[in-house]
Amino acid sequence: MVILLQPVTFNSDVNVNPKCKPSPVPVPVIDLTDPDAKTHIVKACEELGFFKVVNHGVRPNLLTQLEEEANKFFALSQSLKEKAGPPDPFGYGSKSIGSSGDMGWLEYILLNANHHLSFTKTTAVFQQAPAIFREAVEEYMEEMKGLASKVLDMVEEELSIEPKEKLSKLVKVKESDSCLRMNHYPEKEETHDKEEIGFGEHTDPQLVSVLRSNDTEGLQICLKDGSWVSVPPDHSSFFLSVGDTLQVMTNGRFKSVKHRVLTNTKRSRLSMIYFAGPPLTEKIAPMSCLVPKQEEQLYKELTWCQYKSYCYKTKLGDYRLGLFEK
Over 90: is that where the pLDDT of 254 sits? Predict the structure, then answer.
C-alpha cells in the first residue's frame, strides 16, 4: 500500500542543496497487523530508508493529550521556558541547534528517555509544566520504545538475524541511549519569495527514529538521486526512518535517510521524534550474520559513545559516516 506525494516548488533563493529538486515519490505505508509487514519493512529500509506505519496500537487519546500538553509548554512565556535551558544537550532550546552553529526557525525540548538516569535539564522542563505533561511524556516514550522494538524484531525475523533480538534488545534494555525531541516551529508571516529552513538537512545517528507531527506540512526527505520530496503529514500515524547506526550494522543494505524541515506557513508545526539508540558502550559494526567475511565489511567497529560524541562536534549537514568507513 502506498501514498503518492505531491510535488513542491521552490524559489531559486532558497538556501538548500541546488542538486536537490522537488519530485513526487510514493512513501510505503505499512500495516503492522499485516502478516507480510516484515517483508514490506525491509524493502522500504532498502529502497527509501523511510516509511509510514498504521495500525500501530498506540492509543489515539495519548497522542492528543501529549500534543495538547506540549503546545501548552511552548505557549509559556520565554522567561519560564528558558529556565529549562540552554540545552546540555537535554532541556529547552531556541533557534540554535547543537553546538556547531546550526540555526533553524524552531524551539524545542530534548528529553532523556532513560528513566533510571536523572538529568537536571530534563527535570527542569517538567518543573515548568503540570504533572500530566510528564506522565504523558513517560507513557509516550514507553510506547515509542515498544514500537521501535517491534519494527526491529520484524527486521530481524525477515533477515534471519542471529542471535534473536540482536537489534531490538539494544532499544529494550534500560541502558538504551534513547531520547525524545519535541520541535515547535512557530507560525510566521507567509512569504512568497523563499522557503525558510526550520531544521537543516541531516541524517539521524541512532538505529531508527519514530516521528509523529500535527497536520502541518514541512518535512521533506532526500532520495538517492538527490531530489527532495515533501511528506504529507498524518497525525494519526507514525513515520520511521533508518539511522546511521542501522546502516552500519546492515553494512549499507539499509540507508539512513537525509531529511529536513522547511517553514513558510502561518500555521505552527509540532513534531515529536523518538530516537531509538543503543547503550553507550555498545560496539557498532556490520553484523557477521549478514556479512560473514571481514573483507566484505564496509565499516569498522566503533562504540555508540564514540560515534555520538563525534556527531555532536559536527554540523548538521556533514557526512558523518566517514568515521566508520574503512
Answer: yes
